[in-house]
Fold this sequence. Notes:
The structure holds 2 protein chains of 2 kinds.
Chain A: E1 6-14, E2 22-30, H1 36-47, E3 66-69, E4 72-75, E5 90-94, E6 101-103, E7 106-107, H2 110-118, H3 127-130, H4 157-161, H5 174-183, H6 192-195, H7 209-213, H8 220-242
Parallel strand pairs in A: 1-5
Antiparallel strand pairs in A: 1-2, 3-4, 3-5, 6-7
Chain B: E1 5-9, H1 13-24, E2 28-32, E3 48-49, H2 60-76, E4 81-82, E5 86-90, H3 93-108, E6 114-116, H4 118-124, E7 134-138, E8 141-143, H5 145-158, E9 162-164, E10 167-174, E11 180-187, E12 192-197, E13 200-203, H6 209-214, E14 222-232, E15 240-243, E16 252-256, E17 259-263, H7 279-292, E18 301-312, E19 324-328, H8 329-333, E20 338-343, H9 349-364, H10 382-385
Parallel strand pairs in B: 1-2, 1-13, 2-9, 5-15, 13-20
Antiparallel strand pairs in B: 3-8, 4-8, 5-7, 6-7, 10-11, 11-12, 14-17, 14-18, 15-16, 16-17, 19-20
Helix pairs in contact in B: 1-5, 1-9
Amino acid sequence: MSQNKWKITLKIHRQKEAEAPHFDEFALDVDPDEYVLDAVERVWAFMDRTVCFRHACHHSTCGACGMRVNGVEKLTCITYIRDVTQDGGTLKVEPLRNFPVISDLAVDMGSLYSRLDTVGARSVLPVTQAEAEKKPADWPAGDEQYIRLADCIECGLCISACPSAATSSDYLGPAVLAGAQANGLKRNPELLGLVDTEDGLWRCHSAFECTAVCPSFVDPARRIMDLRKQVFVERFSRVFRRS
Amino acid sequence: MSKPHAIIVGAGFTGVATAHDLALRGFDVTVIERGDICNGTSGRTHGLLHCGGRYAVKDQESAIECIDENTLLRKIVPQAIEPNGGLFIALDDSDLAYGEAFIDGCEACHIPLEQLTPQQALRLEPNINPRLLTAFLIPDGTFDPLRLALSFAANAKKNGARFRTYTEAKGLIMDGTGRVTGVRILDRQSNKAEELRGDILVNATGAWAGEIAEMAGADVPVKPTPGVMVAYDQRFVQRAINRLNKPGDGDIVLPQRRMVVVGTTSFEIDDLDYVPVLDDHVDLMLERGAELIPAIRNARIRGKYMATRPLISSGSGRSAARTFKCYDHKETHNVEGFVTITGGKATTLRAMAEKTADVVCEKLGLNAPCQTKEVPLVSYRQYYALPN
């Protein structure tokens, strides 16, 4: 950890019930090797007890502390201050987009959680089952990191970053489609009606923003592309089953 | 007769589990929490679903609580648990000597264990220190802290409990006879002050229990004791790896997601609301963690953090018992309508809730048996999906 302290200005998005959104600025001395979440928590502890933000595990296993940091979706508990600002610089912290704001930096992620349940996505798996997920055949070798969708921590960063999610609040969104892909249409044909829809797979315009911001390397974009292939296979097999 | 109204302060593990238990017993339950679910000690816990082995030599009461609850939680909340097991490994003569007491302790606490040769252990976990002398396979697990808490909260909500997050307790309301009848709260979402009335107030604020007790002129012997943990960016093992010796700094390495987490240390503090992550503790975790898994030296730090254990101050630091206690403040300070539950560990959250709900029912003269051992919990995601 670095010995020298930085002076930064933390600009926090404030939004209380029946109050116009605005930013409050806090001058902080920070260690550049602290995380953004540490700075926000210190504002709450020592400067302004009314700041609301979500956080729990502080080591990227729970997905509670997603925010936009200088305009980019970040899991703030593992984002070093030195990677997002400089000595004398500004750090602008805002709530995730495409979710209703509860207060200040805290958003209501209910839509994401209920949709994940409807596709049967599972977040915590025993190792025997976590290893069972096979990556699609055409994914490059050496990408073993993608075999555990159980690494999706449901943080919502992908939904916030997705330009298509901004156009329709009914869009299932990257994490949910990734959950459906991992479960597989072959094993769960009932998912076809859910994902093969305008607000399912076909709302995705392949911007790949989801994959760019995912802190768990789950790669939702590539999973969506794979799910499209699964849909064609499933549609064909239904035609043959009928005839 | 209308349902009795229980107000629970704190939505960490103890608070959400007590909400679940009391809702099942027919209470009208309101939980207030100044942040969001699990944003204090509980969220930042190491994540070890203890089998009790860690305590089997010196603190057998805790060890038995752990193995019993470990077995139950695997059944009622599998969605939050990786039931992968764990190893205790010996690396030197002192560890080997401890092994004798360890075998006896586990036997006394009915913790199943299987001794492995170094070769067998390395086949299970190729990344552990190859110089190990012996290993014991035990039924540890890992849990996802937030999802464990949300599962209990979701079930409580399903049975009618209300969760008021971002709502801070500012003071207790007392009548002239020394009875707590409610709590003054600040809704931090609207910055509005309100009063909530209830038949019983449960202080489930863990390390902060002393602060809430003080509002009623009571106190509890809780000693907040933080520890530092470090997460590294590679999943070197699938099981919990424990040093086969008496509890010490950095003696456990756990897999979580695509990481391993090394923990933990033990120190004392004055200000509970912000505890710095000390650099020398972070360095120590690397030293100790690398003894168990040498490859940690080549990994990158993914997160460094701390959590403050609520130890009941019968001893200090490592010598304090890890068991829990429910205080009826009528007995301790002649304050009616007010109980505190603290101490304990994440693994014993359900048992802590059962004990607390038993005390609450007895105080209110209700005969409502605990049902939480039998009821499998609904999806943790229902916490967000169900109306409040």
